[in-house]
Amino acid sequence: MGTKRKQQHDEAPPPAPTAPRRLAVLIGNGRVDGPEGGLCLDIEGIDRDLEAMAAVLGDAESAGFEVISLFEPRLIDARREIARIARSAGPEDTLLIYYSGCSLKVGGQLYLPMRDADASFIEATCLDADFLLQELRHSLSEQIVILLDGCHSGAFFAYNRGVPNGFFALSSCSADEISYGDAAGGAFSRLLVEGLAGARADADGDGVVTTDELFRYVLPRARAGGAFPPTTPQMWSWNLPQPIALTHVRRRIFLSYRRADSAVADSVVEALEQQGFGVWVDREDIGGGSRWRDAIAQAIQDCDALVFLMSASALESDEVYKELAMASQLGRPIIPLQLGEVHLIGWHKAELGQLQIVFHDAADEARQWLGDLIAGVRKACAGRAATPAR
């Protein structure tokens, strides 16, 4: 009598959890046809804005957004892409929508023209805030960001209700102001890119640029004007438990120096931050109430490399020695920038004598030494991975 063999079925393993996605739609349009075939509006530089934003948000190391860029799209294409991305986002996903170009205020409300807008029927043929907010209310995302660079963009919320939860919006100007730019792009968009691409917007020094920090970065600079007339960016936030992380500072550098070398330190900080490095400097980065040595120790532990302004006075400093010794013990690369004549002895000779030293030349107006220093920092950091913002 045969025996029945029990059939065994391997249970399928549970699906692996998916990481939160970061989704961005970038829309730019500066051209609107007139009623008789001519151009009603023609704003230059919009393509540059989209290219710059796509580069900074799409950087896998610092931001990690999946970027869709629409330059001079038709209204139906812009609406469809907004709806698609809003409906595809989950609760843990970050959703960002950016617009650069001509924007119009009609009856107190803001309208964003696309390439096929009809100047005679603005309300009927332009992207409006009501549609955008409606699609975002239907989205499951609880981290939503809108960035608007256009005239009267502060009118975005005029007469609109039903803002989605987890929402942040930032506009280039108030409802009654004009936005400015040139062939290189919008003035406000440049500030956004500066804040997102570098480390200067990272006010608390934690290595992440958040929505609130981005606003605090662009506001005073837009108000100050400069090459363009001043504007007043507007910010809205609704039911957002904490600021949304936008970008991660690419690398963190600890600067070890003596106060006598502050002028050179300022040049180094500015140059490194312009290259996207976050620089920890004790005169700025130790907050009130912090324990000085604990803060320094934590900063060295968190850094990717240490730049040492190697002057005669710095080599005599016990505090500088402790910073260098800790960095060496932790295996952090040290890049010395030699200021003037120095004499290495003892520990300094053993630890620093074999390193490639960059020489500061105060007489070099081109500041080639800064380029050499940045190259040295990049090389030193090459083996250390940064964590994208989440």
Output mean pLDDT: 87
CATH architecture assignment of the largest domain: 3-Layer(aba) Sandwich
Strand content: 15-25%
Number of strand segments? 20
pLDDT below 50 for ≥5 consecutive residues: which ranges?
1-9
Structural class: alpha/beta
CATH topology of the largest domain: Rossmann fold
What is the CA–CA distance across the termini? 64 Å
Q: Main sheet?
A: 6 strands, mixed
Quick one: overall form? elongated
Helix proportion: 25-40%
CATH hierarchy, class of the largest domain: Alpha Beta
| Total domain count | 2
The strand order across the widest sheet is 4-1-5-9-10-14
- CA gyration radius, whole angstroms: 26 Å
**Oligomeric composition of the shown chains:** single chain
Number of helices: 13
Structure report:
This protein is of the alpha/beta class and 390 residues long. It has 2 domains: 227 residues, Rossmann fold, CATH 3.40.50.1460; 131 residues, 3-Layer(aba) Sandwich (Rossmann fold). The strands form 6 sheets. The protein has a 6-stranded mixed β-sheet, with helices on both faces. Strands 17-16-18-19-20 form a 5-stranded parallel β-sheet, with helices on both faces. It has a 3-stranded antiparallel β-sheet with strand order 6-7-8. A hairpin with a 2-residue loop joins strand 11 and strand 12. Helix 1 packs parallel to helix 5 and helix 5 crosses helix 6. The longest helix is centred in the N-terminal third of the chain and has 14 residues. The N and C termini lie far apart (64 Å).
